[in-house]
Design brief:
The protein has 153 residues and is an alpha+beta fold. The chain has one domain. It has four helices and seven strands, in the order αββββαβββαα. Strands 1, 2, 3, 4, 5, 6 and 7 form a seven-stranded antiparallel sheet that branches. Helix 1 packs across helix 4.
Amino acid sequence: MTTIEDISKRYGDRILKILENIRLELHERTTLTCQDPEELDAEWAWAMLVLSDSSDMDSSVDVKVEIVDSEEHEGVEGGVTFRLDVTSYGGHTVCQLTPYNYTEECWVKRANAEAVEERFSIIEQADVSELTYLLVDWYRQERKDNVANVEEV
């Protein structure tokens, strides 16, 4: 039986690559500072912290990619999905991508390698420049920080 740990080993490096691509995009197009992406212990998640010029933790945002276990979240046996979650300090959701969330198609069987790969590819192929737009807009509206020149983004 395929476990979440098996999936973590198979996709961990690719998840770090997604976060690194986001970090590079934010570095090139904004004044935001990003910490290096890292694996979070025992959470089946990888994340990086994003800060505005102020370096104030109150203005920080976590960008996280998670392997989500169906048993833990829905009580559905043997399922998995992936989630890209961007959350500000204090718990405000800036944006989230969970393929087929709130539908019967949300979970794929962990043992079905092809279905797991198809589900992961939705996260992997997401346009990181869209995340840049969302973060810049959030910082401007919520924090009143000018983190990028409009012409650049």
